[in-house]
Write a structure and sequence with these properties.
With 410 residues, the chain is an alpha/beta fold. The protein folds into two domains: 221 residues, 4-Layer Sandwich (Metallo-beta-lactamase, Chain A); 128 residues, no CATH class. Helix content is 34%, strand content 20%. It contains eleven helices and 18 strands. A hairpin with a 7-residue loop joins strand 10 and strand 11. The termini are close together.
């Protein structure tokens, strides 16, 4: 069995290669500054494998652009056996669907929230088109691959709600959570409140905000609710392996986009500013959810993939990890806020980072694995811009930079 790592610049793209099966684990991104060519960039890293019909299955660890936007460019004519997605029914609902509906209904087309929501819809459309089957993975599931077993460790739907807070926001002494990039955006949310409490507040704020605009929006809200209902039904049904078509959901999505375009043309500057403020909060809450459901899996002591699992999830799972892995995909691109000393150390440790100066690889990760090897996809002219370990453009001696691809036998 081999693992091929592709350098996609602050994103993930790996291929697990067996004798007859090739499982693509994520494919994104170069989405810096909402790069309009990000999907083409990421797809360019796998187009040779696609042209040779090498990829037999796809796993999307979670619904963030830096993990899936290259998949959007796979031709509709391409066929795979199974698309694996993170199990998403939590407390008997799909927690991110309403937020996606709100962002598609009113957010600026240039906002991260709108673009992420749009691309998630396009991802579902793509996977329905190219996959024979869509399977949502959760803890204790097992994938049989290359005469071996891949063990799914997360998401654990029995305990996941306790981990659905945003690890990249920390409470101050008054319990107020602020964003890590020190922008003016903040929320007066008490630290102990979890995702669904925040989501309830956002739902109320959305309703009050839209009503206060005093413009014609009767067509917008029913269209949004219709889209949410269809998307909910589609995801629920697919969890049960029912072959529900995505066509009605996609038509409802296009209707919603048409309504939102009419709605946004009538907005004044103050309305737009208020929407931008709301959309950023809604986006961050969706990001919280997506990271919390990120798929974590391993295969004996061959490899461990941690996706973008928050540090608390890694701590929780640590008793289940093997003592030694040959390959470990470090969580969340090696950023400081996701660091935990419980992250396992492998013989080879992948840090799939690069592209965001504000999200540098933290030296804690490199220090922990300094006696082993680091596979680093931060292939930039100035390493110190993207790694807190690098000084004077010099990397750790344990680092191997990936410029084309890296192949490892496990």
């Amino acid at each position: 069995m081999e693992i091929i790592t592709k350098p996609v610049m602050h994103g993930d793209c790996n291929i697990i290669c067996g004798d007859t099966e090739h499982l693509l684990i994520d494919c994104g991104s170069d989405n810096r500054g909402n790069n309009v060519n990000s999907s083409s960039f990421a797809y360019g890293k796998i187009n040779k494998e696609i042209s040779r019909n090498d990829i037999t299955d796809i796993m999307v660890s979670h619904f963030h652009k830096d993990h899936f936007n290259g998949i959007l460019k796979i031709p509709d004519s391409y066929k795979i056996k199974t698309a694996y997605l993170p199990y998403s029914i939590i407390k008997n609902e799909i927690p991110y669907v309403k937020g996606i509906g709100r962002l598609l209904a009113i957010a600026s087309p240039y906002s991260r929230g709108f673009q992420l929501s749009r691309d998630i819809i396009e991802l579902f459309r793509k996977l329905v088109c190219i996959s024979n089957e869509i399977h949502f993975l959760k803890k204790d599931d097992v994938l049989f691959f290359d005469n071996d077993e891949i063990r799914i460790l997360w998401p654990d739907i029995c305990h996941i709600v306790h981990f659905m807070h945003n690890p990249v926001k920390l409470p101050d002494e008054q319990g107020v959570i602020t964003s890590i990039n020190n922008t003016e955006w903040f929320t007066s949310i008490k630290a102990e409140e979890h995702f669904f409490t925040i989501e309830d507040r956002l739902s109320t704020e959305f309703s009050e905000m839209v009503k206060s605009f005093q413009i014609e929006n009767q067509g917008l809200l029913p269209t949004m609710h219709k889209f949410i209902d269809y998307l909910n039904n589609f995801i629920y049904s697919r969890h049960e392996t029912s072959e529900v078509s995505f066509e009605r959901t996609y038509e409802a999505y296009k209707d919603l986009i048409n309504q939102r375009n009419r709605f946004r043309r009538r907005l004044n500057v103050n309305d737009s500013s208020r929407i931008n403020y709301f959309a950023l909060q809604q986006y961050h809450n969706i990001v919280t959810c997506m990271n919390a459901i990120s798929i974590v899996f391993d295969c004996k002591n061959r490899f461990l993939f941690l996706g973008d699992a928050p540090s608390r999830v890694v701590d929780y799972l640590s008793p289940l990890f093997y003592d030694n892995y040959k390959f470990v995909k470090i969580q969340h691109h090696g950023t400081k806020s996701y660091y935990t000393s419980n992250t396992p150390v492998g013989n080879y440790n992948l840090i799939s980072s690069g592209g965001y100066i504000s999200r540098k690889i933290h030296r804690n990760y490199v220090d922990r694995v300094s006696r082993e090897r680091v596979i680093c996809t931060s292939a930039h002219k100035s390493s110190s811009d993207f790694c807190n370990y690098a000084t004077n453009k010099m990397c750790s001696q344990s680092c191997t930079k990936v410029f084309d691809q890296h192949l490892l036998t496990v």
